Structure formats: structure tokens, C-alpha cells
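[09:14] KT: can someone run the structure on this one? pasting the chain below
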Amino acid sequence: MPDLTAPTAHPVQDHGTPETSVSSDGDIAAFLDTVRAMKTGARAGAGAGRLIFALDATMSRQPTWDLAQAIQSEMFSAVKDVGGLDVQLVFFRGFGECRSSKWVDDPIALAQLMTTVTCRAGHTQIAKVLSHARKESEAKPVHALVYVGDAMEENVDTLGARAGELGLLGLPVFLFQEGHHRATEIAYREIARLSGGAYSRFDAGSAEQLRALLTAVAVYASGGRAALARLESRGRPDVKALLEQLPKA
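[09:31] RB: done, C-alpha cells below
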């Protein structure tokens, strides 16, 4: 498998069936302090949580790709004391290009890969991302899949079927949508529902809001629903909105 510092990660194959409210700086500081103070939750003693961080790197995503690159290190650092987090980066762009990194627990290593990637024009490849997540989780359980995007240009029934497969594996998908495209929102919400995950919208340019949402999912991947519930009990409205969508234990 290629080194993370290489310009590209390895290609993702499609293993599925063929297709027939913005937070203030003060809020974020308190939020991250709370995360750092938390103890490991539902997966105590079970090793690090595993999270796939998937991004649409097509041309319309360039501003948010830069945003994600800037905040992901802080997201991973925030959960170090919760129980650790192993992360794999997946991105797609251009004409059929979909790649994944190796699993890492070092935010600096992942940042090095992200700095080598530039956005390219192309269509969404969400089905490949979901199929890849299924394959990874079948090999070794993955605790959460994060997907950040602004569009959906695929067959929604195909995406729903693959999301349902992830739900059967106990792998929830957390989808964060930039913008207000209605058809995209409907598709993202359905993927979240069928996988047992959650959906949220974020505002373009709102680093604080996206940081809070991503960190909340990282807490979930590290400590389970109980850890996320403890975080919500500290009065985080954005965490509460995610928690309310997750199936009851």
C-alpha cells in the first residue's frame, strides 16, 4: 500500500451490485475541552475506534476540501483521550477516480496526503464509497463513515440498497451537506436512515460548525452512543440533533 506522503492513495473498487445553527468560537473551545475530558465509552478496552472520512473532491468542493484539510487534525486530536481513533481517507474526483488511504492514527500523516490532492471536475461516486466501506467493515469493523459533499448524481435506489447493507453491518453513515439542494438532501437523509446514521447541513465557510459536527462523530466512533450522549448532556444543540437521529441502543 502506498505511503501517505505519495501523491495518490490506492484506487477504490466498486464491490456493489450493478446498477439496473453555526457555533461561536467560545462554544467550540468549550466543546473541544469537554471531548478531551471524556472517558472511553461503549467500546472501552476494545481498542481504537475506526472511522472512514470520505470527501467529494470534485471541482465544486474545492472551498470545503480546504476547510476539511484545515480542521481534520483538530478533530483527531480531540478524541485522543477518548480512546483513540484510526482514520482512513477516501475521496473521489475527475472521471471515475476514487481512492483510499491506509489506516492511520496520526493526523499529521493524513494531512500530508490531503495536501497532495486537488479537486477535479467530475460526477459523484457515492456508491463506490459505500461499497468500499462495506468491504472494509467486513474485514474489520468500522464504527462510523463520515461523508462530506454537496451533490448527488447517482441512482438513489442503488445508494439506498448499499446504505442498508452498511446498516446490517452496524456501520452508520453520517452525511454533512454543504448547500441547500433539495434532491441531495433527500438522498443524504435516506442514506443516513437506512444505515442507522444521521444527516446535517453546514454552511459554506463555517469552519466552527463543521468542526463541531465532525468531532461529534469522531467521539461516537471512539466511544459509541453513550459517549455522544454524555457530550450532548453538556448542552450541545448540534450534537443533540445528531443523537436524536441515531437508533436507540
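[09:33] KT: thanks! The beta strands are 10-11, 49-56, 85-93, 97-100, 144-149, 173-178, 198-202.
[09:34] RB: yep, looked fine to me
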